[in-house]
C-alpha cells in the first residue's frame, strides 16, 4: 500500500509581488493625501453651518444684526476663514429668517493639480 502525497506545483505560489505592493502603497498614499487636504475644509463647513443655525435660532430680525452676529461668531470660531458676514444671503420665508451661504475652496494637491470643492448650505 503506497501513499502518494501530491504537492502543488512550484509555480502556484500565492502572495503579493513587490510591484503590487508599490502600486497599492501609491494608491493608499494618494487617498491619504486627499483626505488630509479635504478634512480641514469639511471641518470649516460644519463650523459655518453650526454658526448659521445658531444665529437663525437666536431670532435676529434685521440683516445688519445677522451679519454682525456672524462676524462675532467668526471671531470666536477661528476656523471660519472662507466667508464673512457680507457673503451671507439672508431672506425671509414664512416669517422665518433663512440664511444661505455658498463658497468655493481650491486645494493644491500637487502642483499643477488642484481640487475645487463647492460648498453651500442654509439655516434650518
Could you write a compact summary of the structure shown?
By secondary structure, this protein is an alpha+beta fold.
How do the helices and strands follow one another from N- to C-terminus? HHEEE
Which strand order does the major sheet show? 1-2-3
Q: Based on CA inertia axes, which overall geometry fits?
A: elongated
Quick one: biggest sheet? 3 strands, antiparallel
Which stretches are poorly predicted, pLDDT < 50 over at least 5 residues?
none
- Alpha-carbon Rg, integer: 27 Å
Calculate the mean pLDDT score and round it: 89
Question: Structural class, judged by helices and strands?
Answer: alpha+beta
Oligomer: single chain
Number of spatially distinct domains: 1
- How much helix, percentage-wise, in residues? 40-55%
Content of β-strand: 15-25%
Q: Count of DSSP E strands?
A: 3
The number of helical runs is 2
Molecular structure report:
This protein is of the alpha+beta class and 124 residues long. Helices cover 44% and strands 24% of the residues. It has one domain. It contains two helices and three strands, in the order ααβββ. Strands 1-2-3 form a three-stranded antiparallel beta sheet, with helices on one face. The radius of gyration is 27 Å and the shape is elongated.
Amino acid at each position: 500500500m503506497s501513499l502518494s502525497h501530491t504537492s502543488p506545483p512550484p509555480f502556484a505560489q500565492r502572495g503579493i509581488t513587490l510591484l503590487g505592493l508599490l502600486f497599492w502603497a501609491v494608491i493608499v498614499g494618494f487617498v491619504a493625501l486627499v483626505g488630509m487636504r479635504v478634512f480641514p475644509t469639511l471641518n470649516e463647513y460644519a463650523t459655518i453651518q453650526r454658526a448659521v443655525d445658531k444665529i437663525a435660532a437666536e431670532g435676529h430680525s434685521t440683516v445688519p444684526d445677522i451679519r454682525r452676529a456672524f462676524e462675532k461668531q467668526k471671531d470666536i470660531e477661528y476656523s471660519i476663514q472662507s466667508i464673512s458676514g457680507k457673503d451671507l444671503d439672508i431672506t425671509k420665508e414664512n416669517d422665518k429668517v433663512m440664511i444661505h451661504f455658498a463658497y468655493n475652496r481650491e486645494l493644491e494637491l500637487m502642483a499643477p493639480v488642484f481640487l475645487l470643492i463647492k460648498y453651500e448650505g442654509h439655516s434650518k
